[in-house]
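Project outcomes to date are best conveyed with an example. Our students and postdoctoral researchers have been running inverse folding experiments weekly, and each run begins with a structure described purely in tokens. The record below, which covers 219 residues, was selected by the lab manager from last quarter's runs and is presented without edits.
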């Protein structure tokens, strides 16, 4: 059995993050704050020996990955981008005000906002409500996101050796969905820009080690 440890990093801040807009497959670069966040995380991870580095193919993830790599004392031979690890696709809701999106969806189901949906039902229900309310039918369902994650991990396990440590740079809602699928309560706890979530993965499944660690200056 192959078991690996994955440090999953959310990309640094972008202008759309700053403006509170839904940013799924929209390809946006990091802003100044985002670049600084990525560098800080890179410094914090400098001594970690990674065997494989992966990022989503979207600019904000690639930029974050490259900033982190600059600070690593060991850079592995295996590094690649994989669109399987892209952010959740929000379809019609892409680029719109994120809080307004969720208020619209929540009110239609008798709730106030996204966290209210999760508290009374689940993150899965919220994701599927967006999918069902998208007039274009393109917003991803919870099941589609989790299935995409599993495909990416299956591909990764074929490349990895037992005991490898992997750096994966991806996106906030994607990370939150995976954490939820692993039993983490994420109400009021969205992945921080350039924060790190660590999991262990094997052919038998995955387990959470630490969710949403934000590096401080002291780290």
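After processing, the design step wrote out the following sequence:
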């Amino acid at each position: 059995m192959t078991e690996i440890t994955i440090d999953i990093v959310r990309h640094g801040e972008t202008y759309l993050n700053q403006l509170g807009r839904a940013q799924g497959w929209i390809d946006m670069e990091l802003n100044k704050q985002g670049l600084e966040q990525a560098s800080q995380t890179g410094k914090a991870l400098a001594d970690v020996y990674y065997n494989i580095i992966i990022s989503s193919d979207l600019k904000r993830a690639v930029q974050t990955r490259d900033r982190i790599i600059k600070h690593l004392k060991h850079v592995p031979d295996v590094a690649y981008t994989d669109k399987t690890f892209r952010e959740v696709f929000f379809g019609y809701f892409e680029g719109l005000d994120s809080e307004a999106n969720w208020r619209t969806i929540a009110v239609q189901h008798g709730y106030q906002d996204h966290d209210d949906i999760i508290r009374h039902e689940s993150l899965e229900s919220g994701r599927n409500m967006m999918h069902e309310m998208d007039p274009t039918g393109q917003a991803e369902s919870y099941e589609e996101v989790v299935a995409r994650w599993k495909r990416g991990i299956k591909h990764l396990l074929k490349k990895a050796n037992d005991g490898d440590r992997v750096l994966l740079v991806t996106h906030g809602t994607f990370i939150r969905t995976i954490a939820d699928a692993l039993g983490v309560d994420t109400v009021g706890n969205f992945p921080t820009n350039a924060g790190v979530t660590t999991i262990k993965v094997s052919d038998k499944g995955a387990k959470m080690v630490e969710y949403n660690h934000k590096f401080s200056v002291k780290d």
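Residues 3-90+141-213 form a domain with the Rossmann fold fold (CATH 3.40.50.1240). The beta strands are 3-10, 52-55, 78-81, 165-170, 196-202, 205-213. The training component of this project remains on track.
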